[in-house]
Amino acid sequence: MEKKNEGASPADPTTPEAIGYKPLYAQVRDRLMRRLVEGEWLPGMLLPSEIELARQLNVSQGTVRKALDSMTADNLLMRRQGRGTYVAEPEESRILFQFFRLSPDQGTPSFPDSRVLSTGHAKPTPTETEALRLEKGDRVFRIERIRSLSDQPILIETITLPARRFPDFDHLTIIPNNLYRLYSERWGITIASAEERLKAIAASARDAAKLGCDTGEPLLLISRVARDLENRPVELRWSRCITREIHYAVNLR
Amino acid sequence: MEKKNEGASPADPTTPEAIGYKPLYAQVRDRLMRRLVEGEWLPGMLLPSEIELARQLNVSQGTVRKALDSMTADNLLMRRQGRGTYVAEPEESRILFQFFRLSPDQGTPSFPDSRVLSTGHAKPTPTETEALRLEKGDRVFRIERIRSLSDQPILIETITLPARRFPDFDHLTIIPNNLYRLYSERWGITIASAEERLKAIAASARDAAKLGCDTGEPLLLISRVARDLENRPVELRWSRCITREIHYAVNLR
DNA sequence: CAGTGGTCTAGACCACCTG
DNA sequence: AGGTGGTCTAGACCACTGG
C-alpha cells in the first residue's frame, strides 16, 4: 500500500526514467528464469510456494502469480492446485503434444519409434552454421534416423547438434527415442521453443530407398530450429515425411 | 467483500452444487461473448469501459478484466491503454499475421493478390458435408482462385461455403481479395479460429496448367476449416501451393 | 487438518490518450 | 484535466491435495 517501487529490487532498472521500463511482474519472471537457467530448479522439482517467493522477492503474492502464470503458459512450469508449482519435464506425452504435430488421418496421435541409421562428427554446412549461429571452427554432430508409426516408416530425419554444447555425444552407447529428455538429463539443456518451416519436396533416390517409397514421391519437408531457455538455437532438424496417411496439424486462433 | 456469489447472476448456473462449476470470470466471458455474437458490438466498435461493465454485470473490475484479457488473447478484442477496448476487425495486416502462414524464404511476408477462376453452386461432396456439418439437401457455393505474390502464382485454392449461411453470394459482382472481411461486413460472420492440415501432394495436370508448373511437381496441400465465434465450421479451403521460394511457418512453444 | 494454488474483491497509483 | 486500460497490493474465501 505504502510501497512505491523504491529500492525494491537489488539491481534496479525499474523506475520509468528513460525508455527501458519493465513492469514488476516481468522483472520477477526474469529473476525466476535466471534461477531456472542456472539449474537451481531441475525438471520435476517443486518450487517454493507463491507466498514464500513473494517474501523472498519482496513483492506481493499477486505479482509472483502473474510471473508464474506467464511461465506456465510457455510450458516451462506446471501448476497443480493443492500440490504446488513444478518445473515441467520433457516426458513423451507433453513433447507429443507440444512439439510433434504429425497425426494419422484417422485415429489418435502417438509417439513414433526411431531407428538410427548413422551418426558422426562433421564440419557444418553454411546452412547449419547460420541456423545454429556457429562460430568459426565449431564442429557439429549429426544423427540420421528413420521414424515409424505402427511399423510403417513415416519419415527420415537428419539432426544436427553443435558439438561444443553436447560434449562426448559420441560416447553414448544408445541413442534414445526421446532426444529432448536426453538433452535435459545429460547436458541440462531444456528445449523451450522451436520454429518450423514446411515445404513440399520430391523424394531423393536415397531417401526413397530408406523410406520404401518411389523416387520423386512428394514428401513434406519440416525444417526445425529448436531453442533453449535463453532462446539460443540448439538443434537443427530436417525431417522428410510421407504424408499419404498422415498430416501435419495446425490450429489458428 | 460481503458478496458470496449468492444470486449474483440472473440465470444462475453458478454455485458448485454438482459438477458444473464455472468461475465467475468465465461466466462474464460467456455473457460478453453472447452480446458479441448477437451483434450488439460490431467490429471496430468501442466497448464500455471496465468500470461500466463491472457495474452492469455486478462484479468487480478485476473479474471483468480477466474476461476481457482472455478474449483479447483469442484475438476477438483489441485493448489500447488510454483509449479503450475495441472489437477486433478483419483488416489485412491482422489476417496476414493470424491466418496466413506462408512467407517468402527471403524477405518479409505480404498479402497475396487473387484472381478468381470460377464460381458456382453445387451439391456438396461427402468430404464437404462432413467438414461443414451440412444437413441433407444443403447446397454449397464454390470459388476457385489463383493467388500471386509479386506477380508470381504461388497457389490455387478451392473455397467451399454453405449456401444456407451465405444467401445471395452469387449476386456479388466482384469477389474481394480479403474474404473474411466480406463475410463479416455482408453476413455478420466473424472467423474466429481455423484448423489446418498439411500434406505433400503431386500437382494434377489441371493445377499444374493453372499454376504454370510441371504435372507431378510436389505441392503443399493446406486443408483449412474456418470457424465462427460459436465454433461452427463456416468455410472449407483447399490450397495447393508451390513451395519453391516460399514456406509455411509454425512457431512451437 | 494445514498448506497449496485458484478466484474474487477493493482500492491505489501509473502510463497513455484525447480534448 | 479527466478517462481509459495496466500494474500492484492486500486480504478474503474456495477447491484441491496430502498426511
Automatic annotation (TrEMBL), chains A, B:
Cite the SUPFAM superfamilies for this sequence. Answer: Chorismate lyase-like (SSF64288), Winged helix' DNA-binding domain (SSF46785)
Q: Does the keyword Transcription apply?
A: yes
InterPro entries registered for this protein in UniProt:
Bact_HTH_transcr_reg (IPR050679), Chorismate_lyase_/UTRA_dom_sf (IPR028978), Tscrpt_reg_HTH_GntR (IPR000524), UTRA (IPR011663), WH-like_DNA-bd_sf (IPR036388), WH_DNA-bd_sf (IPR036390)
Protein keywords:
DNA-binding, Transcription, Transcription regulation
Question: CDD domains attached here?
Answer: WHTH_GntR
Any one Gene Ontology molecular-function term assigned to this protein's record: DNA-binding transcription factor activity
Work out whether the entry's keyword set contains Zinc-finger: no
Biological process (GO) annotations held by this record are: negative regulation of DNA-templated transcription
In terms of Gene3D superfamilies, this protein maps to: Chorismate lyase-like, Winged helix-like DNA-binding domain superfamily/Winged helix DNA-binding domain
In this protein, which residues make up the domain named HTH gntR-type? 22-90
The record ties this protein, via Pfam families, to:
GntR, UTRA
Name of this chain's protein: GntR family transcriptional regulator
